[in-house]
Protein: Sensor histidine kinase
Organism: Paenibacillus radicis
Amino acid sequence: MSELNKQMMLQMRTVEQLSLVISRNTELQHYLNVPVSDFYTKQKEQTDLQKVMNELINSTPSLQSMAIYVNHPTFSDPKEYVSFVKHSDLLAEPWYLQVERSDFTWLGERSIETAQGTQNVVTFARKIYSSTLEYQGVVLLNVKAKVLYTMMLGEKQTAHRYLLDSGGRLIMGTYNSLYTELKLPEMLNVAQSGTGYMHKKRSESGAYEDYLIVWAKSFNEGWIMTEVTPWEVIAAGSFKLAMTIFWIGLASVLVAVLFTLYLSRSFTKPIRQLLQAMGKFPIELKQVNLPDDYNNEFGSMFNGYRRLMERIEDLYRSLDHEHQRQRKAEIKALQAMINPHFLYNTLDQLNWMAIDAGHERMSHVLELMGRMFRIGLSNGESLITLEQELEHTECYLQIQQLRWGDGLMYSITIAEEALKNLYIPKLTLQPFVENAVVHGFHRREHGCIRISVEQDIKGLYIQIVDDGVGLKPDWNRQPRRATGGYGIRNVRERIEAYFGSPFGITIEPANGGSGTLVTLRIPRLEHDDNGGNDHVENSRH
């Protein structure tokens, strides 16, 4: 197929080069430039040009005829070997649009009328341009289809072969209905440069026919030569041979099976014993005695299985021990939860006692502390909403305002109301606010704290600014202490464990050097997906 494709491409290129020579022929260019009014000169040159082109047709056996479409030919006979046709007749041809879209193209196989009758030809069309690139007409070279078929079929005159151009259009073929039914262009779209084959089934009247499709694709032009062969033709001569091979193979298989059964008895017995032992262990949870008189690979397998069972028993005992320790830890955790709940309930009772005694300020403090404990407990959840966290922080600030009076001012600004529904680790903001009140406003009668919440492409962006004494020069080298169990170090470590880089905490002097600016970066968490568990698995968020 590759050789045939090369021969066909060589023949096609010869025709294309010949058309290029004709379109640039000096006599043809001179004829096209003769004015229409000079009828005598134009007729003479057309006659001379027709003789030259006739000689060219006669010297090229593969050419059937030539047609030149120009404006105002002096005479025209489409049945001659070289005919001059009115350019306006080109518009009525079914292949006109194909010629119009390109400077040259193959039109494929078609029938034309000649002096010898109807002839099948494969036509190549090329536009004619002047030396100034002005469009002047079209030249058609009609190649004898019989010559191309003889070349394409070679020794297999009954083969179903087809020649497709680079766009998948059929140039010529021996059995066009099969080409249409198999949809060869669609199948051959997968063909790359080189050769290949595929097995295709075609449905016809409820039955299926198998075909072997072989193709060869030219590298430069991209044209494909393909052959379709019924599968039954390929398999007809090999059926008897296949049956002979089948019976020989069947006899060989039977002999091999008998020989294998004979040998397997000496190998499968220890394997069956090992499988039985492996099957009983999960059920009875005890080892099965295995033979210890094997000194080969089976003996190594038995010894390895015994060591494996001993290791599994050790793991069972270790898991049982760990399970007991886990249960004890859960009991201790439940007992530890009793104390915060007890304290919360005690604060509630003290609040009611303060109300009964008329101590409104004390009642308000106890109420705020109760709300802080309720949020701090939060049913054991590790993450709470930003709204709850801000409420917890504001409760602390209100308690401090009861002590400071008008000396303590604060503001909480949220860029978007929807940000309140996002989740953050609980007890994140209050330690920084407490640090500002205790240390930043120490020995002062007034202070201001501003909390702002925004978001950017990286997540939540929370800032806490105070106008306190600011940071000491060596503040970063001092050991960080926890505040009430939830200090700055605790918050920093939790954010790092939960989310990792680039999220975290930045502490720096505020603008002007008076006060401290704390910046927290936390990712957007729209759901507490882990239900209160620590989010350490998201430390590389």
Summary: The radius of gyration is 48 Å. Confidence is low (pLDDT under 50) at residues 333-339, 481-486, 530-541. DSSP finds 14 helices and 17 strands in the chain. The longest helix spans residues 297-357.
